[in-house]
Design a protein that fits this description.
Largest sheet: 2 strands, antiparallel
Structural class: mainly alpha
Number of helices: 22
Shape: globular
Number of strands: 2
Distance between the termini: 38 Å
Strand content: under 5%
């Protein structure tokens, strides 16, 4: 194989007006791309867990307040809508998933390199800028990875698939606080800051290697025409509506904003909560407690995914989010082991909420899938809004009392969980995908394999023309 042929086979541009085999990938066919993309879930779970640890670490080493330290979360999650509605979404719609993965990894690596001199100069604003670049990279990865896992394989198992992949995100959030307890809090301030530099240098090297691995890999590109085919096959007719009338999508994005903000706020101030309510706990011990709580979070994802094998995902989602509301309430008034235990249980039930909102919100979007996924991922911006509000409340009162802020946002997110279970316009598209046989038989009807995935058949061609007009618009 010559260099020209090698580069042609690894072209980063995919035509969205073609229906391919990717619309009906079987479990076996989807295994490799899902495993490869799942590595990204661990990566941003580690980055997010590291951020929660650094929140408290910089309060100590740079002598800043709780509300100011939340600038890390504001920079990190504030970058998400810029990526998911801006540059990453444009790349996803005009080039494809693999190009977006590589773009996100490169931005992540650049941000990790920028962090080095900022830490050396002990510049908190500079480090926030580095985190903003990293947030753009991770926002790009989430813009592509969440919908890719959801649509890569039989639609019936979409919620199970994304929850299992997101469980490795949870494992990453466990590893980071454990690392922080030994690398950041077990040394003097100067040594700890130096260790932070080396951690981010190692991250940069790893993500650049991973970006090259994605360039070499050949993974299925799921096109808008593929998604239009799935929507037609499952009789989820939301695909027929213009994008701006996809009200279920925007409600899901609102729920994601509220839920993610609450989740990030709890994790960001977990160490502060333990220090305020457990006088004998130091920062290193509190960081290990956070790792334990994130372990409960990861375990909850595996448990929730197993429940979805027997119960409809929308019911599991409603029950889990309801328990989040029930168990965070006592943590506001209780102290000591009782209050911390309530947060442990809350994190366990948080586990499946984010990925399930993604999967349910994308049901039936068809040719709008790539564009719509950007709106749901943009909901992660809640992580830039709710933690600062929680930090202000924690500075004015105590961290425990500040937990009333995420409680309010959990209640707001529950409006979507109620709607998707009891409002027919929400419930029916979700259930249509839960019973479809697409991807279970391995048939690729209507695909012209010789032309590289072109579609034969007038009905599907019509779907392609609609998808093409939408892209050009």
């Amino acid at each position: 194989m010559g260099i020209k042929e090698f580069l042609k086979r690894r072209s980063l541009r995919a035509r969205d007006d073609r229906r391919t085999k990717a619309a009906e990938l079987t479990l076996r066919e989807s295994l490799y791309p899902i495993c490869l993309v799942t590595v990204l879930f661990f990566l941003w779970g580690f980055s997010y867990g590291l951020l929660d640890t650094l929140n408290k670490h910089f309060q100590n080493t740079l002598d800043i307040t709780k509300s100011r330290s939340s600038g890390l979360q504001a920079a990190y999650f504030g970058a998400y809508p810029l990526a998911s509605l801006g540059h990453a979404n444009w790349i996803l719609r005009h080039f494809g998933y693999r190009a977006t993965f590589i773009w996100g990894l490169c931005l992540y690596g650049i941000g990790a390199l920028v962090a080095w001199p900022c830490i050396l100069a002990r510049s908190f604003p500079g480090f926030c800028m580095a985190i903003f670049i990293i947030g753009n990279g991770l926002g790009s990865l989430e813009t592509a990875a969440n919908p890719y896992i959801t649509v890569c394989g039989p639609p019936r198992y979409a919620e199970i698939r994304i929850n299992i992949s997101q469980a490795f995100n949870g494992i990453g959030t466990v590893v980071a606080p454990v690392l922080g307890s030994y690398v950041f809090f077990a040394f003097d301030d100067e040594t700890a800051l130096r260790n932070v530099q080396w951690v981010y240098l190692a991250i940069a090297i790893f993500v650049f290697i991973l970006a090259f691995a994605f360039f070499l890999s050949v993974i299925p590109e799921i096109t808008d025409a593929d998604m239009a085919f799935q929507a037609t096959e499952t009789h989820a007719n939301a695909d027929d509506k213009p994008f701006w009338k996809q009200y279920r999508l925007f409600h899901a994005a609102f729920a994601q904003f509220c839920y993610t903000g609450a989740q990030i706020a709890i994790a960001s101030y977990f160490i502060n909560y333990v220090r305020d309510t457990q006088p004998l706990a130091d920062d290193s011990m509190a960081s290990r407690f956070l790792a334990g709580a994130q372990g409960a979070f990861a375990a909850g994802r595996f448990f929730g995914a197993s429940l979805m094998r027997f119960f409809r995902p929308r019911w599991v989602f409603l029950v889990f989010l309801t328990f989040c509301i029930i168990f965070i309430a006592p943590s506001i008034t209780q102290r000591g082991w009782t209050g911390m235990s309530m947060l442990y249980v809350t994190l366990f039930f948080e586990s499946i909420c984010f990925p399930t909102i993604v999967a349910l919100g994308m049901r039936g979007l068809g040719r709008h899938t790539k564009r719509g996924s950007g709106w749901i991922v943009a909901g992660v911006m809640g992580g830039a809004v709710v933690p600062p509000l929680t930090g202000v409340a924690a500075d004015a009162h105590q961290t425990a009392l500040a937990m009333v802020v995420p409680l309010i946002f959990f209640v707001a997110a529950a409006t979507y969980a109620v709607a998707v279970n009891f409002v027919p316009a929400y419930r029916d598209p979700a259930d249509a995908f839960s019973t479809t046989e697409v991807g279970l038989t391995g048939h690729h009807a209507g695909v012209d394999e010789e032309s590289g995935g072109d579609v034969a058949g007038s009905g599907v061609v019509a779907d392609e023309k609609v998808a093409k007009k939408e892209i050009e618009a």
